[in-house]
């Protein structure tokens, strides 16, 4: 693989990461909206199912945050390597 091909692959990967980031941000926005409704609906409930639902929502929010962080790190590392290639 030539340096030009590596640069092109890194550029394509960055583009795909941008698309993935936009998708995950959309999921996060929807999740924020839904979580507000779920938490408001279940705020007084002590049932096991309600606790499971609250935990599932919290876990999903955490996963969105971690995924966006991983995408950001991948983009930073890819961009730094791309710059080193010239």
What does this structure look like?
- The protein has one domain (10-85).
- The chain is built from 2 helices and no strands.
- The protein has helices at 3-42, 48-85.
- The longest helix has 40 residues, at 3-42.
- The mean pLDDT is 95.
- Helix 1 packs antiparallel against helix 2 (48-85).
- It has 86 residues and is an all-alpha fold.
- The two termini are 16 Å apart.
Rg, rounded, reads 19 Å
Based on secondary structure, the structural category is mainly alpha
How large a portion of the residues is in β-strands, by DSSP E?
under 5%
Shape: rod-shaped
What's the mean pLDDT score?
95
Give the H and E element order.
HH
How many strands, which pairing sense, and closed or not: the largest β-sheet?
A: none
Fraction in helix = over 70%
How far do the termini sit from each other?
A: 16 Å
Number of strands: 0
Could you name the ranges where pLDDT drops below 50 across 5 or more consecutive residues?
A: none
Count of individual helical segments? 2
